[in-house]
Design brief:
Helix content: 40-55%
Strand content: 5-15%
Strand order of the largest sheet: 1-2-3
Order of helices and strands: HHHHHHHEEEHHHHEEEHHE
Number of helices: 13
Shape: globular
Structural class: mainly alpha
Largest sheet: 3 strands, antiparallel
Radius of gyration: 22 Å
């Protein structure tokens, strides 16, 4: 099986990429994605920013992206960019499946403490290396409009993160290229802006979960009906504490209605502001 995959890897990758891009009816996702893989990664850029040698390719990328003139690697049989695009889309699809699984879970505050297993072919969620009972959502099982809307938002968010990175933006904002980005932002619809905000909040929670995994945090159990009793007098629901495990067995408990904010966790006042209400 492995030998067959190695032999036909390029054909398989090309076929899978074509399936992903079949939903891109206007080509915007492909153009955004090609701009992303052409722009330099932040970790590959010197601390002082772009150099005279690396700036021109960035500017050419912005111009080509504005004109929507990137060539389709599938049409050009560009195996290098086909492989890069497939890796890029595969990782984003993992995040999309993670985003949906957390949003659709009955206990979202608990779900947002978990992280996706990036090494697994089958979508699954982990908390400190252990699989968690969160129902996965397969990207391929969604309708075409849903896949298009989500993939478009995640790709555009990745592009904006690269463009507005301090190492790159401080050079672009001085020239007309800032106007190119601004015009593109103005063309976004209200639904596009809402989708980008959702992606932004997802990644904030994602990085927050990384901090939670590095700390003495605790994953709460799911609430069950057997642990709930209705009080008729005040119409409130109380937990039967005698049936719950002792908190001292778990060390520092992680409340189920808060999440770690990565930015606040790095601040000097993190001991008082590390937790924020969702």
């Amino acid at each position: 099986m492995l030998a067959h995959y190695v032999e036909y890897r390029r054909t398989i990758t090309r076929y899978r990429l074509a399936q992903i891009l079949a939903i891109d009816h206007d080509g915007t996702i492909l153009q955004d994605a090609l701009a992303v893989i052409r722009l330099p990664a932040a970790k590959m850029t010197p601390l002082w920013g772009l150099s005279p040698l690396t700036l021109p390719p960035v500017l050419r990328t912005i111009r080509s992206w504005e004109a929507q003139k990137f060539r389709d690697p599938l049409m050009q049989s560009d195996q290098g960019n086909i492989a890069r695009l497939y890796r890029f889309f595969s990782r984003l699809i993992t995040f999309i499946e993670d985003y949906l699984a957390k949003a659709l879970d009955p206990f979202p505050a608990r779900a947002y403490l978990t992280l996706p297993d990036l090494a697994s072919v089958v979508p699954q969620m982990l908390f400190k290396g252990r699989e968690v009972d969160i129902k996965p959502v397969a990207f391929g099982a969604m309708s075409k409009p849903e896949r298009f809307r989500l993939l478009k938002a995640f790709v555009r968010y990745e592009l904006l993160c690269k463009v507005y990175h301090p190492k790159i933006w401080k050079f672009l904002k001085r020239d007309r290229y800032a106007n190119i980005i601004e015009r593109s932002n103005q063309n976004l619809t209200l639904k596009d802006c809402e989708a980008l905000c959702c992606v932004h909040e997802y990644f904030k929670g994602f990085y927050g979960a990384l901090y939670a995994h590095c700390r003495d945090s605790w994953l709460p159990d799911r609430q069950s009906r057997s642990n709930l009793s209705t009080v008729a007098d005040d119409q409130t629901v109380e937990l039967e504490h005698q049936n719950l495990p002792s908190s001292k067995d778990y060390g520092l408990l992680y409340p189920d209605n808060v999440y770690f904010n990565a930015r606040e966790a790095r601040s000097p006042q993190r001991h008082t502001h590390v937790l924020q209400i969702r």
